[in-house]
């Protein structure tokens, strides 16, 4: 009896120790993958200078040269993806909204300025900004013809917003494919298809509802027919080489450059335009997507990162965008000495 008691006691101690070890291991694994988005790190350097439009247009030209494009003498609004370019006739503006580059805020703002939205929009109908309300403004044939006619009569102001490809990739994953609850509409069906496709490659039979970040990146590299314009290179959404935009905003500096758009179009500044960096910090280097991008991307296989860079090479060249290893990530590397002088 005493022997059984001692054995039972030893067994209990061993099980307890194993439980503690397992808990410690899981805690370490959790800490390794966890980023506390409520804690804002400190940066050693202030924000670099806001890029001028002269510098921005020069970088765009460099990117177009990589694509073998040249700017036209006059604009012809013939867009490869017309559903993402909008003509607002009342305020005489053309805007290309690249998915995951802050386009939702701009579309709502411009629709309201052009009289295309009700004064008060029911929160349950916000999704209609991308459907019912914006559809008459998309640059399909009839709208395109009106835009080109207006352009011939008097120049129409055009602009677009671009973003660092790394943070755009992470934002697309968080908003559309991850388990995270966001304000966007998730792509549940696509998420499951990605999981099944990558699991088939890895010979895994246990499918989940959402892909991991690694599975998502590997799916991007596949460049299969499941991909849509939330995940493809953003230069494909721009109406280049048929047009030259009057103004281009790097999303990272939108808080500084947006007032110029509002002033140029003579818009009512009392209307709300929530910036994409409307959070605890106005410094884009400290935003949640930036912090997650630095961590998640640094954990990936270097070969996978290189494959992604090749796919988005022209997007990086657009604004001489920094890598996630840079202390100024995700900002454009403004006025770097290797940039073209002319």
Verbal overview:
There is one protein chain. By secondary structure, this protein is mostly helical. 42% of the residues lie in helices and 5% in strands. The chain has 11 helices and 4 strands; from the N terminus they run ααββααβαααβαααα. A 4-stranded mixed sheet has the order 1-2-3-4, sandwiched between helices. Strand 1 and strand 2 form a beta hairpin. The longest helix is centred in the N-terminal third of the chain and has 32 residues, at 2-33.
Record the SSE blueprint.
Layout: H1 2-33, H2 53-67, E1 85-88, E2 93-96, H3 103-113, H4 141-153, E3 157-162, H5 165-176, H6 188-201, H7 213-222, E4 247-250, H8 254-264, H9 288-298, H10 302-311, H11 313-318
Parallel strand pairs: 2-3, 3-4
Antiparallel strand pairs: 1-2
Short description:
42% of the residues lie in helices and 5% in strands.
Low-confidence stretches: 22-34, 275-280, 338-342
Q: What are the secondary-structure elements, in order, as H or E?
A: HHEEHHEHHHEHHHH
Number of strands: 4
Strand order of the largest sheet: 1-2-3-4
Task: Report how far apart the termini are.
Answer: 92 Å
Characterize the overall form.
Answer: globular
Helix proportion of residues, in percent?
A: 40-55%
Q: Mind describing the biggest β-sheet?
A: 4 strands, mixed
Average pLDDT over all residues: 84
Backbone structural class: mainly alpha
Note the beta-strand portion.
5-15%
Number of helices: 11
Rg measurement, Å: 24 Å
